[in-house]
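ARCHIVE CARD
Drawer: 12
Card no.: 0347
Subject: one protein chain, sequence and derived structure
Cross-reference: see card 0346
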Amino acid sequence: MIDIKTPAYRRASLALALGSFLVFCNLYLFQPMLPLMANEFSASATQANWLLAAGTLALAIMLVPWAVGSEIIGRRKVMLMSLFLLPVVGLLMLFADNLLMLSLARAGMGAALAGFAAVAVAYMAEEFTPRALMVAVGSYISANSLGGIVGRLAGGFIADTWGWKVAVIAMAVFSLVVALIVLRLLPPQQHFVAQKSQLRGHMRSVIQHLRQPVLWYAMLIGGVNFALFVNLYSVMGFRLVAEPYSVPVSWASMIFLCYLSGTLTAKFSGKWSQTHSPVTGMFIGTTVSVVGMWVAAADNIPAMMAGLMLISSGAFFTHSLAYGWVSQKATTAKATATALYLVHYYAGGSLGGFYLIACWQYGAWPAVLAGGCVLYGLIYCLCFRLIKEKAAVEGVQPAA
């Protein structure tokens, strides 16, 4: 098994971090462009949101098929196939001449991205020691946030200056380079055992995981948490480019630098989980995000940025702990379990956009606050349920 502070660990963790970075660069390339694309295609904010939602929704749908395939052909092959598809699908976007075609191309990108996202943590769970796993998951999710930052900044600045097609070409070239680096660095699997069972067996695994509340509640927490996090940023983008702020898209994309606070808390989550309850951490992370949403309600840009930093810090801390929880508590078919977590995660991100953007269009930020509080309250309820289920499984009195 790969342990911390070994050459194999450094190679594997770097390769996985680079792959994660690339996945999120591609996934969120269009998010800062949403106001720009709404104007270009004469579409509403909700219609333009399909450029983000189509990718995340397709990713969610394809996670389990990729995970099932990895149980047969191996995690490493699936991850590499996924990464090398990215430049191909990216260049196909250049042929889209309307919002519908571009949204469908973005769905194709999400389907390609799903391969890496579905099995990376399963690869770690099989190849890393338990101690190395939790640290590696924190680093992996930190790379998620960095990839999200870079992809959004690149999308915002390049599209605002040279147009969205130049942004797509630049990302396709970058994707090919990173895929080649991961191919060279990622170690072959030593502990993977191919499962030759039929599709029915894999579906039984899916049903088994969903019937375990100790897993399913954590998946729901991840989904609602992400629905709030990613779409509060989308709404803030529309808020900044509108009056009275009228910030250019390129500068509005700078809000995604606030993700850096999430990079730090995702990294810290690995250390937290070694000495404290992950569910307690989910409570704390959710509370930090709630406070951030209210701070961001102020009518000045510095307060908005401070609020977004708090939202990021809490959301990534909660996500890291919930993700690691599922990978640990699943006793069989780990790739399927982690893929199911991500199905909830990205489906939440996709559907949450329509919910929060509708709140924005209906009543601006006060309506977003009200809608956000409903979802944060749901996370608290799910955390309480998770505590009770954990206690029932372990045969002890409920305690966070």
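Annotation on reverse: DSSP finds 15 helices and no strands in the chain. The chain has one domain: 7-394.
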